[in-house]
Amino acid sequence: MLIEAFSEGPGCGNGAAVVLLTQPASTAWMQRLAGSLKQSETAFLLQQQNQWLLRWFTPSCEVPLCGHATLASLLALGHWELLQPGDSLELWTRSGALTVSLDPSSRRRGSIVLPSGTLRAAPAPEALQALLVQRLGSAAEAFWSSSLAYSVALLAAEAELATMASLAAVLPLELRSGLVLMQPIADTTPAAASRPQQLAGLPLDYQLRFFAPGLGIDEDPVTGSAHALVAPWWQQRLGRNWVVGWQCSDRPGGVVSRAASSGMIRLFGSGHLLWDGTLLTAPHGSAAAGEPSCDLPLCDASASWRSLLPGG
How far is residue 42's CA from residue 51's CA, in Å, rounded to a whole number? Predict the structure, then answer.
């Protein structure tokens, strides 16, 4: 299944393939499949011991957290009628148990709770500042490293972030695992044809772009983990427990973020089902040379999945 997450319709948002497994699959097999599907993330769902397990892969590596593919997984479970509107469940991941909930009135909308991470103020790398001056005419106003290994830079509202050419090919090495460029949306922010005035009836507060060539993603269209990371900063700046962010990529989309429990953020979004079908390859007998076969119900592949469960 392919779902365009954080999108109201086709051709927008962030595409995520969602694969429903009937048995544990090896990491190598999932990585090869993610490379073939070539989405920014492919999500793999597996039910074990009455718990739902979730893992995420870019075309080149497994990642510990992915927001849009979590939303896509939630909407896929709703489409498959494995979760009913208004219901919630926990998805066990490498970032712990993430609570997801389908909207009571629609299988196309829902919310996910993600860890927000921690921003740490730091001097902006000189190479980045020079690059921003070259591309935008001004340097970053503030810079942070983070517990997610993303870096975050704050730009002035006047910066032409939405129309700036991609930075993926010229990012300094230390920023290639993830760079968030964000700015407030104000009267002085350059207009963008794709940017709405409101999302879910609420005005937009900020917009961002996300580059991660080190993860095999030159630019991510709509990045749930990035919004979860920066939302607490915007909430504190604006003095409220919710904010509305827009991702001004070439496949734009928006996220409403609300404070959840300590260190967690609830993201609200919708998604568009692009296609659904049957995968004509399976983990059975698909092991690479030297890799254990997964033909048996319990094989070496199971251990990496069991590690997601409590006490695993």
Answer: 20
Task: Work out how many domains the chain is built from and give that number.
Answer: 2
CA–CA separation, 207 and 152 (whole Å): 13
Tokens representing 310 are 């409590």
Identify the active-site residue in 4, 8, 41, 291: 41
pLDDT of residue 10: 87
Q: Is residue 269 part of a domain?
A: no
Domain contains 201: yes
The DSSP result for 286-298, as a single string, is -PPTTSPP--SSS
**What gap in Å lies between CA 185 and CA 157, rounded to an integer?**
6
What CATH number is attached to the domain comprising 34? 3.10.310.10
pTM (2 d.p.) = 0.90
Q: Is-catalytic flag, 160? A: no
Dump pLDDT digits (tens) for 155-167.
Answer: 999 999 999 999 9
How far from 30 is each of 57, 287, 305, CA to CA, in Å?
Answer: 8, 10, 12
- Residue 66: predicted pLDDT: 96
Does residue 148 share a domain with residue 99? no
Residue 186 has pLDDT above 90, yes or no: yes
